[in-house]
Amino acid sequence: MGATGNVEPREILRLDRVSVVLGGRQILEEVGFALRSGEFTGLIGTNGAGKTTLLRVILGLLRPTSGTVVFAADERSRRTRSVGYVPQKVLLDPDMPMRARDLVALGLDGQRFGIPVRSRRRAARVDEMLRAVDAERFADVRVGLLSGGEQQRVLIAHALISRPDLLLLDEPLANLDLRSSLEIVTLLGRVAREQQVSVLLSAHELNPLLPVMDRVVYLAGGRAASGTTDEVIQADVLSRLYGQHVDVIRVHGRILVVAGEAGSQLASHASDFVVGAG
Amino acid sequence: MDRFFTWIVAPGFFGSQPVQVAIVIGGLAAMVSGVVGVFTVIRGQSFGGHALTDVATAGGSGAVLFGLSPLFGFVGLGVVGAGVMEMIGVRRLRGRDLATGVVLGASTGLAALFLYLDATTSGTTAGATQQILFGSIFTVDSSMLPIVIGFGAVAMGIVAAVYRPLLLSSVSDDIAAARGVPLRGIGLLFMLALAVSVALSALTIGAILSTALLVGPAAIALRLTSRPGVAIALACVIGVAVTWAGVLLAYDSYTWGSSRQGFPVSFFIVALVFLLYVASAVVRPRALHRGGG
User: Fold this and answer.
1) B192 vs A95, A172, B62, B198, B249, CA distance in Å?
2) ipTM of the complex
3) Is the Cβ of A92 closer than 8 Å to some Cβ of chain B?
4) Which has more pLDDT, A58 or A257?
């Protein structure tokens, strides 16, 4: 892995005018952005904004109705596409006979046929990965018995051990307490820099990501605004995106996105429009 | 010492050909059930496994109607049933349960018809119902051995071939799909292995009891270890041990009463599985708890 200083970010993936229509409903409308190596990108939007759909498009599980998704060829290894994925709500059954280290090892070659061959090199790589996510303490505990934050670490290690260029995480903070959230976000920020992975994390809250987020893709109503946090989280940009007046308020290093007019109808949907109030 | 030995193993046990056949077929069925059973439990397909026993009942009783060994019916209809369940069962858990239930209901009806016809149209099959439902391993002809071994090898081969993707999709279908695992193909192959496994244990302990051999040793193994490979090995060892012990006890049981009336193998196997399951709940190793090594 090796910590690298200021490596020039290289483009990993580019989405160009991607639209998705499912069952007659427009889920994504002309979404475009690029992801670069070593950068942490937050995919922000409320429930139903199209975050999971967008991730499924990137994973190749869903074909966009129009537009293109292009992975940059990796000159180092000639891999054209390697993506690590931590899906939303993975239910790890306490009955599953699998230790944290077994799940991480499955990340090496879980998609291949046949029975895995044990080797010292494999074990060393698993140990190294468990260390990288601070999961050595519970490496031999059944995954189903781990806490939510611990399971996230193991799933991240599982996704990272095959050394992908891109790591996608779908709402990994959804069921975590504040402290675990912060730990996971810090870990991912470190992983992005040290391993030169491009991290794309979806969340409905902006604030927990602020310490590490390099760029943001902000989804609302199927459309996206992208750029650095400062470029995107602006009243005029978000007002255009939401199609109505929105205020951006910065207090104590936190950002509140609030719908402007306080009509009774809007008030009842206030939680939909206050992003990162929690 | 000698008397103790004859008390454990009644005279003539190892020399008896039905016993030898039972040892081989029972052991093989238990091994296949152990391998397939662990995946059945962790994939949450115990209900599917149980439905396949009803499919097997229909197949077995149908085969007897045509003068064939029930094994061919167990396997034949089992494979069809497994395919149908997997094809019409959408990936959602609920859809799979419904598809399973529909197949279960249809095959039980078919079994009712075939068992009725078995009993009424042919004079020689008075014991057929008993044999299909509750097993009668001492009556299996030794000519069936190569066929049983072949089926066993197919089931074990399938599971060995898809071991890793099967494990990955048991953890998360989403992760497996994202890594390019063909979920439907893997699911279908596993259902085929499951059908063959159910067929073999149906031959050993009867169609409606075969769930016990499929799920029991696996469930015990999952309580004793947290490693996937070890769980499978353990389920095999437990399954083979209870099956052989069941064969031995059934053979011995002929000498127990004065009536010279033995008890069925199936009863002993299922009873041993149950006892071990209860025991495993009591002696759950510390390692499986949080903080254990």
Assistant:
1) 24, 36, 20, 10, 32
2) 0.84
3) yes
4) A58
Torsion region of B237: left, alpha or beta (phi above 0 gives left; psi -120 to 50 gives alpha):
alpha
B94 at interface of A, judged by CB pairs closer than 8 A? no
Q: Does B113 touch chain A (CB under 8 A)?
A: no
B-chain CB neighbours of A116 within 8 Å are: 163-164
pLDDT in tens, A144-153: 999 999 999 9
From the list B228, B203, B261, the residue with the least C-alpha distance to A103 is: B228
Name the nearest CA neighbour of B192 among B34, B18, B36, B21: B36
A148 interfaces chain B, CB cutoff of 8 Å: no
Domains of chain B and any CATH numbers: 16-208 (1.10.3470.10)
Q: Can you list the residues of chain B whose pLDDT is less than 70? A: 1-4, 89-95, 122-126, 258-260, 284-293
Is there a contact between A97 and B181 if contact means CB atoms under 8 Å apart?
Answer: no
| pTM score of the predicted model | 0.86
Measure B161 CA to nearest chain A CA, in Å. Answer: 4
**How far is the C-alpha of B3 from the C-alpha of B10, rounded, in Å?**
10
Residue from A106, A108, A156, A167 whose CB has the most chain B CBs within 10 Å, to mutate: A106
Contact B171 A103 (CB under 8 A): yes
Characterize A3-42 residue by residue with b for buried, 16 or more Cβ atoms within 10 angstroms of its Cβ, and e for exposed. eeeeeeeeebbebeebbbeeeeeebbbebebbbbbbbbbb
Question: Tokens for A251?
Answer: 């207090």
pLDDT band at A267 (very low <50, low <70, confident <90, very high): very low
What domains does chain A contain, in order, with CATH numbers? 11-244 (3.40.50.300)
Distance CA A63, CA A18 (A): 10
Compute the distance between CA of residue A176 and CA of residue A201 in angstroms, rounded to an integer: 15
B4 C-beta neighbours (distance < 10 Å), count: 8
Distance CA A72, CA A36 (A): 10
* pLDDT tens, position by position, A186-243: 999 998 998 899 999 999 888 889 889 999 999 988 888 899 888 888 888 888 888 8
A75 touches chain B (CB under 8 A): no
Instruction: Give the range among A71-80, A85-94, B100-109, B178-187 with minimum mean pLDDT.
Output: A71-80
Ramachandran bin of B140, using left for φ above 0, alpha for ψ from -120 to 50, beta for the remaining angles: beta
Contact A7, A38 (CB under 8 A): yes
| pLDDT tens per residue across span A246-256 | 888 888 888 88
Q: Is B149:B28 a contact under the CB 8 Å cutoff?
A: yes
Supply the pLDDT for residue B289. Answer: 60
| Contact criterion met (CB below 8 Å) for B158 and B195 | no
